[in-house]
Specification:
Blueprint (H helix, E strand, L loop, with lengths): L9 H14 L9 H9 L11 H24 L4 E5 L6 H5 L5 E6 L1 H7 L9 E5 L18 E5 L8 H14 L4 E6 L40 E8 L18 H7 L2 E7 L4 H6 L1
Parallel strand pairs: 1-2, 1-4, 2-3, 4-5
Antiparallel strand pairs: 5-7, 6-7
Length: about 280
């Protein structure tokens, strides 16, 4: 593949590199052979990221948790629907194996253009080329009267809280009985992307705009949003965190430096609640 990177956001490359590198480790947190193949096919100097161990561990952990929780959803709803928001070059469907769920991969047009180089659409896997904040994409998601799982990996931290809130409230209203898995980044990195170990190495560094101290506050955004689970990255990886392991035992540092995967459940408002609004 040539070195025309115009349609390939650099953040996509960081995630791809992290998963490919994890696959080659002795005791990997996850294996992603598709990521290895894609990285080899892209003409880019991935050695740029070699010293970015914090990003690499974080991506591996978040992907491991998201895979596990997606498997849980599919066990409960084998005919459900999965929508990956800001899909990038995610190969989650390939990692989890063949199933009867419907999948939608949503990304900006340039992201979907890149996806088409490595993935193909089928009757049960469709691509949507649109901004996640252009809510018209929701009209294209067929639920087949089954719950929908939305996944936002490495996405929402680049937008202000009011936009994140508008998205989640709209999803809760449009897809009652649905679920969402999202990554909530550490509060300490908000506004400081230029010092981030991997983002600082790419051109036009995007900024972190959202990272709540308590991800549970999302439940206050709507009566239809329930926080059903959250997982702290420091609880996984052990010695892979090196000197940062100590942060887990210092409450203030843990609160300010922790990333989480958060599971939301969307529930329809009761008739009584709507009457009292």
């Amino acid at each position: 593949m040539g070195k025309d990177m115009s349609a390939l956001p650099r953040t996509m490359l960081i995630t791809l590199w992290a998963k490919a590198k994890e696959t080659g480790m002795k005791r990997p947190l996850l294996k992603d052979p598709k990521a290895v193949k894609m990285m080899k096919a892209i003409d880019y100097d991935f050695s740029t990221f070699e010293g970015c161990w914090k990003s690499q561990v974080g991506v591996a952990i978040r992907s491991m948790i998201l895979d596990r929780e997606t498997k849980r959803f599919l066990r409960n709803y084998p005919n459900g629907t999965v929508v990956e928001l800001g899909a990038g070059l995610s190969s989650r469907m390939e990692r989890l194996g063949k199933n009867s769920a419907w999948w939608y991969d949503l990304d900006l047009p340039e992201g979907i253009e890149t996806r088409r180089r490595f993935f193909r659409e089928t009757d049960s896997r469709r691509f949507i080329a649109r901004s996640v904040f252009d809510f018209s994409w929701m009209d294209e998601v067929e639920t087949r009267n089954e719950p929908v799982l939305f996944i936002a990996e490495g996405l929402l931290m680049y937008f202000p809280e009011e936009k994140v809130r508008s998205l989640l409230v709209e999803l809760a209203n449009r897809f009652p009985k649905g679920e969402m898995l999202l990554e909530s980044t550490a509060p300490c990195v908000v506004g400081k992307a230029r010092w981030h170990d991997s983002l600082s190495k790419i051109d036009e560094t995007p900024e972190f705009l959202w990272g709540p101290e308590d991800p549970g506050t999302m439940a206050s955004w709507s009566r239809s949003i329930e926080v059903a689970g959250k997982w702290n990255f420091y609880d996984y990886g052990g010695s892979r965190w090196r000197w940062m392991r100590a942060f887990k035992y210092i409450p203030k540092l843990k609160r300010m430096t922790s990333c989480h995967i958060v599971r939301l459940r969307f529930k329809p408002e009761s008739t009584e609640r709507r009457r009292n609004v």
